[in-house]
Amino acid sequence: MTVEAAIPTEDQLAEAGLRLRVAGGVATITLARPERRNAMTGRTWTVLAHVGQTLPASVRIVVIKGEGPSFSSGIDLAMFGPDGVEGEPSLMGYLGAGPGGEAALEAAIAGYQEGFLWLRRPGIVSIAAVRGHAIGAGFQLALACDLRVLADDARLCMKEPALGLVPDLTGTKPLVDIVGLSRAIELCLTARSVSASEARDLRLAELVVDGADLDRAVDDLVAALLATPPEAAAATKALLQQAVGSDPAEQAARERRAQVARLTALARQGAPGASG
Ligand code: ACO
Q1: Sheet harboring 147-151: ordered strands across?
Q2: Using CA positions, which residue lies closest to atom 2 of ligand 1?
Q3: Interface predicted TM-score (ipTM)
Q4: What is the pLDDT of residues 104-158, one digit of tens each?
Q5: Ligand 1, closest atom to CA 157?
Q6: Distance (Å, whole) CA 73 – CA 152
């Protein structure tokens, strides 16, 4: 018998500045520190990873949104200070901890990245619903999602290089995949803000809507995604992910194998139109 790990408690979520609601195959994660414009800490990301590891298998869609006027102002800047944020080590503190500090910091960042990477797994579709600022880690969190729906006041900014840093929360690959290398260099090395309409032009947004319509637009998208059978959705998402940069013949072979698996499953179910 497999014992499912427990999802984070309300207290753990609240300490991480998060809320989680799971209903009808949809998990809604809300960044919930509006008084800090949803600034995030290391704990936000490790708890996000925990959410990803423990979501019920029935969840097919994950929506991430921010409470208040901003999606997220990025990393809590106190993480760079000597004291860090309450209950969490400062990033600089790792380096001052003597031999092994660099390795410990790298391990900590690997743990933070786990909070982002699971959003791409084939069994779910992840959607970032962005209003206002998505800065630094906030932009990277939106990039970690499969789809982005933006309110017309959204502003995206990869601020890290302007602070002497690099984007390290898994954002560089999706950014380059979406906008191309040259534009990604321009956006990151100027750290300028991208408006919602430019984001649509750059294909950083699947949809831009009036701010008052953001929730409804996301609900409509979720309903349309839920209408597709889950197994076909997961197999198709996996195929599409593998298609990026793949050899055409190898990708065609993957399509054949995936289709044989689908048809076999449909035939077993006695689906209309399937023989056997
Ligand atoms: N970390 C900690 N506190 C923050 C952060 C942050 N990233 N962002 C905002 N806050 C705090 C502000 O200090 C302010 O606190 P106060 O009420 O005690 O003064 C409160 O949240 C509200 O912020 P305002 O600046 O007043 O809100 P406004 O809506 O005018 O501006 C904005 C929002 C644009 C997000 C601005 O706060 C900002 O530029 N924040 C810093 C963004 C940043 O540099 N993030 C790091 C990027 S790099 C990375 O993420 C790895």
Answers
A1: 18-23, 26-31, 61-66, 125-130, 147-151, 207-209
A2: 76
A3: 0.98
A4: 999 999 999 999 999 999 999 999 999 999 999 999 999 999 999 999 999 999 9
A5: 47
A6: 17
